[in-house]
Design goal:
The chain is α+β, with helices and mostly antiparallel strands and 300 residues long. The protein has six helices and seven strands; from the N terminus they run ααβααββαβββαβ. The longest helix is centred in the first third of the chain and has 94 residues. Bound molecules: guanosine-5'-triphosphate (GTP).
Length: 300
């Protein structure tokens, strides 16, 4: 029997041995080992759980990082696109602004041109009717402020102007009007104002000029106009080059007092002009003081 029994190493002996000394139960040992192994397995399980949790956490954080990175890439792209759009909008605003500035400039030029047209007679370069009357009113107001500074008006009308138009055409009439305006420019001073009231009728406002000075000036203008010979090339089957001549009738009136209105003075000058026409044209006539206005302040 003994020979068939295996000899156990160290202190281990068979439970069937009746020898004294420590006895080890294989079962207990196995049990202990198994318990230990179970504990180890539990711990390993716990470690594995921990590792799994860590791995999960790591995976989640990796995913959210990747998501964030993708989002930031997208946002960067969106920002770039938005920036490009803004730059394009800024560019078109700049272009729009330039166009607006050009438009404003063009409108200002147009307004200046309209103002100039309202102020000036385009054909002759003298003031328009509106402007010469405005200057006249301004001068009258200044005269009232400063007392009895003289102011004289010349109302001028070309004689038989219609004949020139009828015989030589409208362009010839225009040339005559320009030539007459040149005579006026030559004879008037910087402080004087002259305007075309309409057709072939002109008004000169002469501040600081008394009746005698006005008469002298009107006479000089009349003489220069009568001496004009304006060369004119006839069109079509006309008889070639001719000299256009003309005369002018002038009515002169000086403001009689600071109370007299410009309109009244103009009417007196106009009446004098009418008298000049009636008396045979090509002459200067003075306004008659007794016809209208202040009887105690005659001017002739
Ligand atoms: N060429 C030209 N003619 C004009 C212009 N404005 C008006 N007229 C003409 O001027 C002429 C004026 O004629 P009337 O009012 O009869 O005056 P007039 O022939 O000068 O006669 P009196 O004033 O009585 O000496 C008309 O035939 C108008 O058509 C213009 O800007 N250019």
């Amino acid at each position: 029997m003994n020979s068939s029994r295996e000899k156990l190493p160290g202190n281990w002996s068979s439970a069937s041995n009746n020898e004294k000394g420590p006895r080890f139960s294989l079962f207990d040992q196995e049990e202990a080992l198994l318990q230990h192994a179970d504990q180890m397995v539990d711990k390993l399980d716990q470690v594995a759980d921990g590792v799994r949790e860590l791995a999960n956490a790591y995976r989640q954080s990796y995913r959210s990082q990747t998501r964030l990175l993708r989002m930031s890439d997208r946002m960067q792209l969106d920002l770039q696109q938005a920036n490009q759009k803004l730059e394009a909008q800024a560019e078109s605003l700049r272009t729009l602004n330039e166009a607006l500035e050009q438009e404003v400039q063009a409108r200002e030029q147009l307004a200046d041109e309209l103002h100039r047209l309202a102020m000036m007679d385009d054909l002759t370069g003298v003031y328009s009717r509106r402007q010469v009357l405005e200057v006249g009113e301004r001068e009258l107001a200044r005269r009232r402020r400063q007392g009895l500074t003289p102011l004289t008006l010349l109302m001028m009308d070309l004689d038989h102007f219609k004949r020139i138009n009828d015989r030589f055409g409208h362009a010839a009439g225009d040339t005559v009007l320009v030539a007459f305006a040149e005579v006026l420019h030559r004879n008037l001073r910087e402080s004087d104002a002259v305007g075309r009231l309409g057709g072939e009728e002109f008004l000169a406002v002469l501040p600081e000029v008394d009746l005698r000075g006005g008469m002298t000036l009107a006479e000089r203008i009349r003489e220069e106009v009568a001496a004009l010979r304006i060369p004119w090339e006839q069109q079509g089957d006309g008889s070639g080059s001719v000299d256009l001549d003309l005369t002018v009738s002038i009515g002169v009136a000086a403001l009689r007092s600071t109370h007299e209105s410009l309109d009244t003075a103009i009417m007196r000058a106009d009446d004098a002009l009418y008298q000049a026409k009636l008396s045979g044209r090509n002459r200067v006539m003075l306004a008659k003081a007794e016809e209208r206005g202040n009887q105690s302040d005659p001017e002739v």
